[in-house]
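Ticket #444: bound-state structure for uracil.
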Amino acid sequence: MSDAAPATGAATATATSAVEPFDTVDLIRVKRSGGALSTAQIGWLIDAYTRGYVADEQMSALAMAIFLNGMERREIRDLTLAMVASGETMSFEGLGKTTVDKHSTGGVGDKITLPLAPLVASFGVAVPQLSGRGLGHTGGTLDKLESIAGWEADIPVDRMRGILRDVGAVVCAAGSGLAPADGKLYALRDITGTVECIPLIASSIMSKKIAEGTAALVLDVKFGSGAFIQDRAQSKLLAQTMVDLGRDAGLSMAALLTDMNVPLGLTIGNALEVRESLEVLQGGGPADVRELTLALAREMLALAGQPDADVAAALDDGRAYATWRRMVTAQSGDPDAPLPVARETHVVTAESSGYVVRQDALPFGIGAWRLGAGRARKQDAVVASAGIELHAKPGDRVTAGQPLFTLHADDAARFARALESVEGAWSIGSEAPTPTPIVVERIS
Ligand code: URA
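RESOLUTION: The complex was predicted; output attached.
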């Protein structure tokens, strides 16, 4: 069988004229029957998909076969490197600083990049943080920072290098030139039910990180109701797969497995999360946000050759906050501008006295999204001031009538649907729950 006649809509004039070394249908059959593709087959497949020779229908079938039958470690590495090779790569060599990046698999109230990047940079390390915008119930770092007046997410590479040299930390949008095959494949997975697949997630995330050119990477892989993957064992497998992929590509790697059953911190929503990050940067803030920020900073600095760095002191004595101000200013933001505040609020109170025993991350994430903090489609705008502010967390004692959380929105009409989503998402009991750690395991 030959691929000489490409599937509908797949071919370009140049693509049809080339002699292709493999037949796409044969490759689909290999994965359908549980076999492994060779390095050459995977390299060709990704290249042919990027240039439009392999059709979306064919790639969908392959993604589903991979979803159902998995991939060997060697295949995952080949897939990752083929996606890196599909576009441009960056390099931070010549900066005179070690580069260390952090990637989180995302969760509800996850604002850790905001205090973490300037904290680590305050130790003389370069933190190039290429981030994304939020989709669905998990927020995006760029959306959060865009609540700061004037702040710019799109920073050309030369300017990025300058900021890394002068300030040490830059948080900006990843250009579409990095791993374009992943961009195409991820959009396809999104509409074909093939997102939650460890080989595909690991290769997708790591192709972008390898293309970005960081020397070291710390992963925050979350599990629990507000995480991308709920099951702890599966999250651990994802973490180990990504650590192996990074090491194979020459990066220094570490990963933390962290609990995302409860929202992180006391705020969910863009400007609210910036406000909370500022508290952490000034030595305060909720204990879980501070703890995770410090844990990830220690890992990043250890990979950068500073295992004994006193990261808590840098939050408490203003060094990290000073770097934050310089980082925001370098990206045209005004660190002194007031953050947007919602026009309307709605307070939900405790129906009885006792301890908060449960607070389920996912419904609160959906609630914040329905208030305007997130987007349903890529092209939607987010409302910077919208979100949910929690006044109590699991383990806290509350009395009947005490505020439990406040909804923030620009339009009071949004409250009803947000309240629907958080219905039954918390409970109050007579016994304090056993405290659970935020970092449950380290994978290296
Ligand atoms: N984030 C990515 O970049 N890719 C995935 O596959 C999942 C999450």
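RESOLUTION NOTES: The first strand starts at residue 100 and ends at 104.
TICKET STATUS: resolved
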